[in-house]
Amino acid sequence: MLEKIYFYYTNDLHSDFEHWSRVAGYLKGAKANHNTKNESCWLLDIGDHVDRVHPIAEAFMGQANIRLMNDVGYDLATIGNNEGITLAHEDLFHLYDKANFQVVCANFHNVQGKEPEWLNTTVTIQSINGVKIGIIALTAPFNAFYELLGWYISPPYNTLARYIKELEESTDVIVFMSHLGINEDQEIARRFPQLDVIIGGHTHHLLRQGEIVNNAVITAAGKHCAFVGEVILTWDHSAQKLIKKEAYTTDITHLEKDQQTEETLHELFVEATTQLDQSVIEMKHPLDVQWFEHTEVMQRLTNTLKEWTNAEFAMLNAGLLLDHLPAGKVTYGDIHRICPHPINPCVVELSGDELVEVIRASFTKELMELTLKGFGFRGEVIGRMIYSGLTVETEFLSDGNEYVSKVTCNGEPLDPNKNYLVATADMFTFGRLLPEIARSKTKKYFLPEFLRDLLADTLRKSFST
């Protein structure tokens, strides 16, 4: 007898609910169809469902996301870095308390005491006809952040090696839910032939028909749930083995919306708006925001960052603020709207030479006009860099490009060999936006505060009537 086993999955929604009601309708329909046919079917999420960029996620600290997943009927989920490092310890500890699905993450640990009751290292599920399926999941080890929040992520390869032998002995099939990224997924497939399926996320890769590496089929469905993934396994009960593994992703953006989900989203948005409608200050004058110009609010915010982190200098890009603020009542919702990024303050150590190179790079048209989506940045462009504690003099070339002619502190040039503590947005410590910052061997992150928390303090101190 041949038995088909079905998995449907989502990954990296990032609280982008544009297509969520379509996702809900598609998944509920698929599950109902398989239940009618008496076929085994599970719904999975691979992490980063929560992202505090959205007011619903911000107001409910992720709890509304769990309600939405319950409504769809998810069976299993794992933790992404956006759940893991953007929520305070207590909020994450209780995030899944009301989940009607099992949460699996074998390398996630609480360093402050007992583990959350919802946390499973592995899970075993069973098909209608008795095929035992072992589920293991891992999340990306951003311990520089996690440890500041009272969590620890153990090394992925060591964790897999620890649990995979046990699963191999007790189950027929092993499914790995990976919030590690495509490169890690491929390497894990090469190292661990025991894995049959790797369902991935984190790096927002889209594999339309899956990819076979060693013994595993690897799959992932991009980001924001424009696609939903499906894995179909065929088990031969006579031969007692898998004889076929298939993986597909389906574009759901053209499908009809599930009206019940639409109503729930509207209800949650109204409630979130009410919760965020808490007055922060009253402003007598409107606040001007410009991405490519020096503004008072960006200068004040950069000054606050310098003082708050006790750094010698500070730098922030003007693109962090997305919109103007009118005169009158300013709520936390307004602050979230103009500064929605899950970005934390950070202090790095740079030599005088390195800092000057960073400053020069920041004034290039290429960086200022860079369209960025990622590293926590949820805006449009990087914009002009604003400095505190430094005087940066620039001139314009005949071609219209601006260049840095002089950098001083209290009228004196920077010592090229001296190390300075520079406060900035943590997004510059990732990737290659500003290589000197990314390569700094000394990085101190501040959690759970976001830059918008410093913005609220700045507005209270400098702009309140």
From TrEMBL:
Q: Name one Pfam family in it.
A: 5_nucleotid_C
Keyword terms, alphabetized = Hydrolase, Nucleotide-binding, Signal
Q: Sorted alphabetically, which Gene3D superfamilies does this protein's record hold?
A: 3.60.21.10, 5'-Nucleotidase, C-terminal domain
Give every 5'-Nucleotidase C-terminal domain span: 290-426
* InterPro entries reported for this sequence: 5'-Nucleotdase_C, 5'-Nucleotdase_C_sf, 5_nucleotidase/apyrase, Calcineurin-like_PHP, Metallo-depent_PP-like, Pesterase_YunD
- The record places domain Calcineurin-like phosphoesterase at 8-205
Domain of life (superkingdom): Bacteria
**SUPFAM superfamilies (alphabetical):** 5'-nucleotidase (syn. UDP-sugar hydrolase), C-terminal domain, Metallo-dependent phosphatases
What's the family?
Belongs to the 5'-nucleotidase family.
Please state what the protein is called.
Bifunctional metallophosphatase/5'-nucleotidase
Species this protein is from: Virgibacillus byunsanensis
